[in-house]
Amino acid sequence: MTKKCLIEIYGVRLILKYDKTIVLEDVLSTLSKKCNLKTQLSGVTYYDLMIELVNWNKEEHFDRLGTKKDPNNIRIPIKKGRDVGILIEVAVLDYKLRKNGEDYSKIFNKEIYKQINNKKRTQKNEIKHSVHGVLLEINGTGTLIMGKSGVGKSEVGLELIAKGNKFIADDKVIIKRKYNDKKLRGYCTEIPYYMEVRGLGIVNIEKIYGTEYIKSYANIDIIVEIVEDSVENETINILEEIFPIHKLEICAIKNLATEIEELVKMYRKWEW
Q: What is the mean pLDDT of the chain?
């Protein structure tokens, strides 16, 4: 059975559809101070967005590029250990940008085609490598989040950004070592500050959160991998540097973003 409620957040009216197995209070916990909630829909004459919350199924398709015909009808997959309220908030902020004529899904796709036709060469005096993941700077510590496709790296990264941490890159992280540098640095691609989020499509972090939430590069200090089952920690070799990989298992009880922040705190204590 599907339930519905009306939410108004930042002046945007949206209908939220959700399965009876989803606890609405948990979903809206981070939005409680930012929105007005109505469970009775009688008399509702208009709305701006329709968001459907769907339990995650890896066999089911969810929009990743924002190219669907009706961008105001959104399906967001619900996963364990995530703050879905953050995704709803970003969907609303992205809607407001589109309403003002700033459709960053279309802008991103145009830039992709330009880059395909105009590839830049690697600069001299540096060695370059790329990895699949999300790079953030959390309390001054460069944190690379890795994991299989669909495991939820971008959603966790988005939650950490909403907490005030800095975003560097999503999906493809460029790692470089200049000959005089001891540490490896991670950079975004030539199309910076975009994030691909299942259900929402392509969002521009700089436009949604502001310039204080982005950075052009960060050192590679910690590597975290999100996994579906409990496994032992491993190491990874990147440009002749050996890094331990901290494995974090997806769990309904624990919030992954909070776990990553705790890892960073432990790293900083050890470093000092």
A: 85
Looking at the DSSP bridge assignments, the partners of residue 266 are none
User: How far is it, in rounded angstroms, from Cα 248 to Cα 156?
Assistant: 12
Nearest to 48 by CA among 19, 17, 9, 18: 9
Please give the helix or strand (H or E) that residue 78 lies within, else none.
strand 73-78
Query: Which two three-digit tokens encode residue 52?
Result: 């459907």
CA-based radius of gyration for the chain: 19
Kindly report, residue by residue over 210-251, the tens digit of the pLDDT: 999 999 999 999 999 999 887 788 899 998 889 999 999 887
Spatial CA neighbour of 165 closest among 112, 94, 218, 121 = 218
Q: How is residue 199 written in tokens?
A: 């259900």
Both structure tokens of 204: 């521009």
Confidence (pLDDT) at 82? 78
Question: Tens digits of per-residue pLDDT, 155-165?
Answer: 999 999 999 99
User: What is the Cα–Cα distance from 129 to 189, expressed in whole angstroms?
Assistant: 12
* Per-residue pLDDT reduced to its tens digit, 96-125: 999 998 888 888 877 777 776 665 554 555
The answer to whether 79 and 152 have CB atoms below 8 angstroms apart is: yes
Residue 67, SS3? coil
Domains and CATH numbers, the chain: 2-99 (3.40.50.300), 124-271 (3.40.50.300)
Report d(CA 222, CA 159) in Å as an integer.
18
Cα-based distances in Å from 116 to 111, 128, 189: 9, 19, 12
Asked if residues 157 and 136 have their Cβ atoms less than 8 Å apart, the reply is yes
Q: What is the DSSP-derived secondary structure letter of residue 71?
A: T
